[in-house]
């Protein structure tokens, strides 16, 4: 799951000229602790100290590729003429944004 998620994120980021991400065991551990609470909600950034994207679907089977693809598919609704946050494209922008330190 880790490799699939990271590779897929980085392939989408590359399409937008954004540097690749690297895996953070610390962030993954913190995110897992939040997920173990079994409450499907964002932690307001306080939970993991980073942006958060959630995914859920019903029926059939789902996997990490489906979730990441679902977030990226929001790109179709993104208005490049008026860049910024929108609740309908927030997962996409979270996925491809450049780190503030660059």
Written account of the structure:
There is one protein chain. The protein is mainly α and 102 residues long. The protein is 40% helix and 0% strand. The protein is built from four helices and no strands. It is globular. The chain starts with a helix and ends in a 6-residue tail after the last helix. The mean pLDDT is 85.
Helix content: 40-55%
Output the radius of gyration.
14 Å
Stretches where pLDDT is under 50 for at least 5 consecutive residues are none
Name the shape in a single word.
globular
The number of helices is 4
Structure summary, number of beta strands: 0
Sequence of secondary-structure elements: HHHH
| Beta-strand fraction estimate | under 5%
User: What's the end-to-end separation, in Å?
Assistant: 28 Å
Structural class of the secondary elements? mainly alpha
Main beta sheet: none
Average pLDDT reading: 85
Question: Which key phrases capture this entry?
Answer:
102 residues, 4 helices, 0% strand, globular
Strand and helix layout:
Blueprint: H1 2-15, H2 25-35, H3 64-72, H4 90-96
In short:
This protein is an all-alpha fold and 102 residues long. 40% of the residues lie in helices and 0% in strands. The protein contains four helices and no strands.
């Amino acid at each position: 799951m880790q490799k699939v998620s990271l590779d897929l994120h980085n392939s989408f980021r590359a399409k937008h000229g954004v540097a690749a991400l690297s895996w953070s065991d610390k962030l993954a551990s913190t995110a897992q602790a939040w997920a173990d609470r079994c409450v499907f909600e964002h932690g307001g950034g306080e939970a993991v100290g980073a942006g958060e994207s959630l995914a859920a679907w019903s029926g059939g089977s789902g996997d990490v590729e489906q979730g990441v693809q679902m977030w990226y598919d929001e790109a179709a609704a993104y208005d490049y003429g008026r860049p910024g946050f929108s609740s309908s494209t927030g997962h996409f922008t979270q996925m491809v944004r450049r780190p503030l330190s660059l």
